[in-house]
Design a protein that fits this description.
39% of the residues lie in helices and 21% in strands. The protein contains 8 helices and 12 strands. By secondary structure, the protein is an alpha/beta fold. Strand 6 and strand 7 form a beta hairpin. The strands form 3 sheets. A 5-stranded parallel beta sheet has the order 2-1-3-4-5, with helices on both faces. Strands 6-7-8-9 form a 4-stranded antiparallel beta sheet, covered by helices on one side.
Length: 228
């Protein structure tokens, strides 16, 4: 079942889209302003997002830019009454994958969402699946399994594991993780990396007999590959 996030402050439009998507078998979450929408986008895993440009609290383009800077590659469809070419270009450059102007037919919205979900994410590199022992990560399908069991990760956890797997066998520093997974230059004293690694371990390592994520004292972390 597909999960969709709608970030839209117009209640009539929101109800119209949410009802239609649920009838098409989607699980739907709704946010009424940009800040609420950004929170959901960064803390939950979605198959697609629908984001209005003109939102209270935080505008849609700012939401897009923050989501993309966090390494989240979920397909995003922008909704807007702004229909000029420059408006569409601005939205796509901010991180949108498609742009649909209001008013719109629901059938076109669904067709665009289906097209977005058929696209590979992240270009050529996204077609590369990673494996370390019985742990597998597929960036294109956004799936993680271990010993054949599916593991559901939040977007940030997925990005963190993907970076560790791309560098499996090598120690990566907290600074490297902050710059490549968060795309921000945090205070080096922050514990955000350690908190997320702990959450990742709880899902990837603790239910299984052999831990793969190692702490490298004085450096950072390493994803061990049992095959090496």
């Amino acid at each position: 079942m597909m999960r969709a996030l709608i970030i839209e402050d117009d209640e009539v439009v929101t109800r119209f889209i949410a009802k239609g998507l649920r009838q098409h078998g989607y699980l739907v979450d709704v946010a009424r302003d940009g800040r609420e929408g950004l929170f959901h986008a960064l803390e939950q895993a979605y198959d697609v997002m629908i984001v209005d440009r003109m939102l209270p609290a935080l505008d849609g383009l700012s939401v897009l830019k923050t989501v993309r800077s966090a390494g989240n590659t979920t397909p995003i469809l922008i909704l807007s009454a702004l229909a000029e070419v420059d408006n569409r270009v601005e939205g796509l450059r901010a991180g949108g994958d498609d742009y649909l102007t209001k008013p719109f037919a629901f059938s076109e919205l669904v067709a665009r969402l289906e097209a977005l979900q058929r696209r590979p994410r992240g270009g050529v590199a996204a077609d590369t699946a990673y494996q370390a022992g019985d742990l597998e990560l597929d960036p294109r399908r956004r799936t993680v399994t271990r010993a054949g069991e599916p593991i559901r990760l939040l977007p940030r956890e997925f990005a963190l594991l993907e970076y560790l797997m791309r560098n499996r066998g090598q120690a990566v520093t907290r600074t490297m993780l902050l710059e490549n997974v968060w795309d921000y230059h945090f205070d080096p004293q922050t514990n955000v990396v350690d908190v997320h690694v702990s959450r990742l371990r709880a899902k990837v390592d603790r239910p299984f007999s052999e831990p793969l994520i190692e702490t490298v004292r004085g450096v950072g972390y390493r994803l061990r590959d049992p095959g090496d």
